[in-house]
Design brief:
The structure holds two protein chains of two kinds. By secondary structure, chain A is mostly helical. Chain A has one domain: MetI-like fold (Orthogonal Bundle), CATH 1.10.3720. Helices cover 76% and strands 0% of the residues of chain A. In chain B, the strands form three sheets. Chain B has a six-stranded mixed β-sheet with strand order 6-7-8-3-9-10, with helices on both faces. In chain B, strands 2-1-4-5 form a four-stranded antiparallel β-sheet, with helices on one face. By secondary structure, chain B is an alpha/beta fold. Classes of the chains: A mainly alpha, B alpha/beta. The interface between A and B is medium-sized, with 19 and 26 residues.
Amino acid sequence: MSDYIIKTIQSGVLETLQMTFFSALFSYLIGLPLGVLLYATSKGKLLQNKGVNTTVGLLVNLLRSLPFLILLVLLIPFTRFVVGTSIGTKASIVPLTVGAVPIVARMVESSLLEVQPGIIEAATAMGASPFHILVHFIIPEVMPSLLQGAAINVAHRTSVRILPLPERCIVGDGGTSGPYGHDHSGSRKSDREKEEKNVSI
Amino acid sequence: METVFSLNHVYKTYHNEGKDFPALSDVSLEIKEGEIFGIIGMSGAGKSTLVRTLNRLEKVSKGEVLFYGKDLAKLKAAELRKVRHSISMIFQGFNLLMQRTVIENVEQPLRIMKVPRKKRKEIAREMLAIVGLSEKENVYPARLSGGQRQRVAIARALASDPKVLLCDEATSALDPKITGEILELLSKINRERKLTIVIITHEMSVVEKICDKVAIIDEGQLVEIGDVKEVFRNPISAAAKKLVFPSNPFDASTKNGRLIRIAFDGTRASEPFIANLVEQTGLKVNILSANTKSVGGIGYGQMVLELPEEPEKQKIITDFFIDGGLTVTEVERDEEEEEENE
């Protein structure tokens, strides 16, 4: 194997891991509270609130039903606003995160729904506030399910990165070259040029 | 004795799919400090709803529930949470946190009350000692038996130093031997800590064993209330009779035969009154069923007798029992048939 291929694989793996890690981290930072909110405001639950629940639910469903490729393109201005560029490892984390947030939120919500109603009843009878019940009773009790969900989520994230999907090529460097910003010639093109390529696709 | 709970004309109606389901109608009762108060009824009679109105897990539709004179319905959320610290509850399904160790479970109510960590551990250990599970401190509930789980739940309930303990079918998921142990523990706690206990159950044996007073709920209504001994000796309502006298698969041997039920308490149990009857009157009766039980340490018995067909002989026999101080009630054929059909 040539040095070039080895290097490419090395840097590719590293970047994949970076993208997986950070997108998973950020998507949970946003998705977890969102999932808790969806759960707690649903009918018959601790903080029942139809308005909040419907609004957040609609937003999540909209985001989730958007194909990733389209989301990616739609998010280019936002990505540029957040990280200053729309290509490269850093830039890819933004759409990956945004795409994962609704999925994480729904997964967290369904995990929370697994809690035995008796636990909530017992906590209420003890005089716990809704917030206390969420933090000290429900979340610890469904932790195994939450972790399972997280494992599936992260694994899925990694697979999206490794499989040679066209969307990745776009995230990377325009689709005609190797992974993540290295092209065949070995010389880096300017971001500007890559972006133009990006758009042309 | 101070009144802990006082229910005044409590109604509870559930609305479901446009229909009203009355769960409780016009229930009034008082529970005094230090009592073990039993609430018994068949499944679906409304007893679980009733106990949940005592800590406002269920809001009443009409009427009021007073806890030491305070109307629970009028409390603000924060005040209600505070009151709930003094009303603990244990459940049929235990409702322990499976992801927390035994001691962490017992600490939960203290955590809610913001007791400092060190003090929490101290109290939790003390409670575990009371229920006899000190050595299981760091075990997860999944590894405990049903009886042990209920003990942990009791320790957890006691941790907040409550004034009342509500038990919602707390022994229904346990076998008779473990049930006995749990009841003994509850009775010990009642004596030593002067804790008022409210027990919901569908098993008469539970009431027999430890309750001082009993309320019988049937189809959402309070049909009978009184001292356990009194209710056992002389149940008045049909629901109470059904619970106190187990139905027997018997029938009179002749069509016109009259059946009576005689009930006696411990003081009479030592007298051989059937033998006396035969000796003194020369009349014979047919014993169709008999059983005895111990209620609060006193033996209670009941017998169903078939009397001879002649009315004058029947009169002599019933008079003999009544003069002897026994309670005599008619056993109606229809009632018996009904029971059999069920």
